Automatic annotation (TrEMBL):
The chain crosses the membrane at residues 67-86, 98-117, 124-143, 149-169, 176-194, 206-228. It comes from Gossypium mustelinum (Cotton). Belongs to the aromatic acid exporter (TC 2.A.85) family. InterPro entries: ALMT (IPR020966). One of its GO terms (biological process) is monoatomic ion transmembrane transport. PANTHER family: ALUMINUM-ACTIVATED MALATE TRANSPORTER 10. Coiled coil: none annotated. Its main location: membrane. This is Aluminum-activated malate transporter. Keywords: Ion channel, Ion transport, Membrane, Transmembrane, Transmembrane helix, Transport. It is a multi-pass membrane protein. GO terms for cellular component: membrane. It is found in: Membrane.
Length: 547
């Protein structure tokens, strides 16, 4: 890889060996660079493999059910593969044992409810296909020389009818069954035409499919069963806890004037994997599809554990829907923290105690409902919403007393307009684009926003330093901005506080729907009564009045 020596003579004055030496060094450098790149790729691949292995192990530790699912799949395939070594008188079992193995692969699902659905679809589709194949096989034999024509026409009619019917809305749960029906029918007709033994082909496949389905059901139900209903129950409980965490986090973050990095591309499509507030309420809002899937599986499962026959799984989804209705309000509260228009810290401090109490009491109600749902207990006697309603009333009273904090009180119009106006004056006033509103009450304010362009906003940071957007607005309201325009910006920032407080009160109002849905579920599901806290019995020999 170094210089290449040359011993031949030349007339070039020694330039040829130098030229060869130059190209030799270039070739060696390329090889070294190639080896370096290869080493880097191998190193990166090894790092990625270690990271993948670490995440795979972490997935198994976080949810051991996934490990159990994989073990059960391997066990079922091992048991079914024993048919390959069948040495009995009926050798077709060993020859066509792949049907039993395929049944295990396509039928076995994570939960028992999903396995029952797949098994029902496969069994019904196979049975119908076998019966129809037997009928058309006999018809094709009777047709004689038109046997091939009958088979082709029957396959066309079967594929057309099955493909059309599975598009019917109510047939959507049986789509897999239609696919199995078409596939089984085509295979049976082709195999029967080749061997001329239609009845034997149909019977053999039905027996093998039944064997595979039986192994799947026995292993899935008897060895560490995984129930979809239980997963739905835990998911709804998790939604309660996640929403309580997001609610407390939004209120605390707003009062602490938490400020996010304002990058338009990130704000417009807000994705923050490391933000617990966002992840918690996002998991609640996006759990709809998972809940619908688990609901469909749970209705197929037999009674198990505390879940009796005809268990009201639909009410679990109804309760979760009420929780999502509250989650949308929490999402809007988080949007207030992310918004460009922010209220100054001193104005937030005016309502800090009331906001903090409403947030903590609301989160307490959510956690209490989640705990009751997890234990499957009814609500304790008394009003669970009493404290949060009192906190919301205190907040509303504080808003009534301190409403001037939420608006620019200098712009109020109280009286100032004549009570009687001439008709001609009213017509002229209606034609005037700058007509001012009539007499205002003490709780109304005039906010002139005509001169504010689209996208103009203002916010305060945690140090109560005025930050304006766009940049042509002076922080001190100097010569770059007129006084009235600056007051308009200031009023808009104060109104953002009113938005946050009104959303929090709306959240309290929506909590009533959650409690009503939970009470309905507790009655239909026959939840157990809450424990009664009895006072401790006094010690013997001690007077009852002694505490």
């Amino acid at each position: 890889m170094g210089s290449i020596k040359c011993n031949w003579a030349d007339n070039s004055g020694g330039k040829l060996p130098l030229l060869v030496s130059f190209w030799g060094n270039e070739d060696g450098g390329s090889r070294r660079r190639g080896l370096k790149v290869m080493r880097e790729k191998i190193k990166n691949s090894w790092v990625e493999f270690n990271d993948f292995a670490r995440k795979a192990l972490e997935m198994g530790r976080s949810d051991p059910r996934k490990v159990i699912f994989a073990v059960k799949m391997g066990l079922q395939l091992s048991l079914t593969s024993l048919l390959i070594f069948w040495k009995g008188s009926y050798q077709d079992f060993a020859q066509y044992s792949i049907w039993a193995i395929l049944t295990v692969i396509v039928m076995f699902e994570f939960s028992i409810g999903a396995t029952f659905i797949k098994g029902f679809n496969r069994g019904l589709g196979t049975l119908c296909a076998g019966i129809l194949a037997f009928c058309f096989a006999e018809l094709s034999v009777v047709a004689g020389k038109f046997e091939e024509v009958v088979i082709v026409i029957s396959i066309f009619l079967t594929g057309f009818c099955a493909s059309y019917l599975k598009l019917y809305p109510t047939m959507k749960p049986y789509e897999y069954g239609f696919r199995v029906f078409v596939l089984t029918y085509c295979i049976l007709m082709v195999a029967g035409n080749r061997t001329r033994e239609y009845s034997q082909a149909v019977l053999t496949r039905l027996v093998l499919i039944a064997a595979g389905a039986g192994v799947t059901l026995v292993v899935n139900i008897c060895i560490f069963p995984i129930w979809a209903g239980e997963s739905l129950h835990k998911l709804v409980v998790k939604n309660f806890k996640d929403l309580a965490t997001s609610l407390e986090g939004c209120v605390n973050g707003y009062l602490k004037c938490v400020e996010y990095e304002r990058i338009p591309s990130k704000i417009l499509t807000y994705q923050a994997a490391d933000d617990p507030l966002y992840n918690c309420y996002r998991s609640v809002v996006q759990s709809t599809s998972e809940e619908d899937t688990l609901l469909g599986f749970a209705t197929w499962e037999p009674p198990h554990g505390p879940y009796r026959h005809n268990y009201p799984w639909e009410n679990f989804v109804k309760v979760s829907g009420a929780v999502k209705h509250c989650a949308f309000t929490v999402m809007a509260l988080h949007g207030c923290i992310l918004s460009e228009i922010q209220a100054p810290a001193d104005r937030r401090h005016v309502f800090s105690n009331e906001l903090q109490k409403v947030g903590s009491e609301g989160a307490k109600v959510l956690r209490e409902l989640g705990s009751k749902l997890e234990k499957m207990e009814k609500l304790s006697p008394g009003d669970i919403l009493k404290n949060v309603h009192e906190a919301a009333e205190q907040l509303q009273q504080k808003i009534d007393h301190k409403s001037y904090v939420l608006v620019n009180s200098e712009g109020w119009e109280i009286g100032g307009r004549p009570m009687e106006l001439d008709l001609e004056d009213l017509i002229n006033a209606a034609e005037d684009e700058n007509m001012k509103l009539g007499s205002k009450s003490l709780s109304e304010a005039v906010l002139e926003v005509r001169s504010v362009s689209v996208g103009t906003a203002l916010c305060y940071d945690a140090k109560n330093t005025l930050r304006t957007w766009p940049s042509n607005v002076s922080a001190n309201g100097g010569s770059m901005v007129k006084g009235d325009e600056f007051k308009t910006y200031e009023s808009a920032s104060a109104l953002s506080l009113a938005t946050f407080t009104s959303l929090l009160i709306e959240f309290v109002a929506r909590l009533g729907n959650v409690v009503s849905s939970f009470e309905e579920l507790s009655l239909k599901a026959n939840f157990k009564d809450p424990p009664i806290n009895m006072p401790p019995e006094p010690c013997k020999g001690v007077p009852t009045w002694v505490v």
